[in-house]
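User: Hi! I'm working on a homework problem where we have to compare a predicted structure to a textbook description. Could you give me the structure for the chain below?
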Amino acid sequence: MKAKHILLLSLIIAMAMLRLGTADIANFAPIAGIGIFAVYYFKKKWMAFLLALGALFLSDLVINATNGYDFYAGRLWDYLGFAVGIVLAFLILAQKRNFTTALTSALGASLLFFIISNFGVWAGSSYYAQTIEGLMACYAAGLPFFKNTLAGDVLFTGAFIGAFQGLRALLPSLEVEDALVR
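Assistant: Happy to help. Predicted structure tokens:
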């Protein structure tokens, strides 16, 4: 493996580890940022799903093990929310790939995650009535978490893409020409 690939993979692993440091801040996580970063740079778009959802799964294992939590079926809605956000990033960045469209992808991914994950909470809950009113109550209860989702997605997307652009300026060898990165 080339040194530039080792550096890139090391950066991605470091990105994923940020979730462990932010676990105490509900919904403030680098997962969407990792996915959007991968959509932005990787030719092999399936890597965006592998990296983001793999980072989420591995960090879930660590967080659950250290806090005594169990993986629950409702968590699959969160995974779906991240996956749909990555699909949105594909669609937006396929039109125009720049820093602004990456941040737009982060905004859209945040909104989709909010809609999907809170729908999952409502659908799997006995706390909320299984009515439109119950669904709206669930979305209203989720609003305080949305600001953290939005802040994390935009911050991490901007930081990851901006930092990598800076590294590419400092290290021309990261101007890769192979199939791994654009």
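For your comparison, note the following. Confidence is low (pLDDT under 50) at residues 176-182. DSSP finds six helices and no strands in the chain. Good luck with the assignment!
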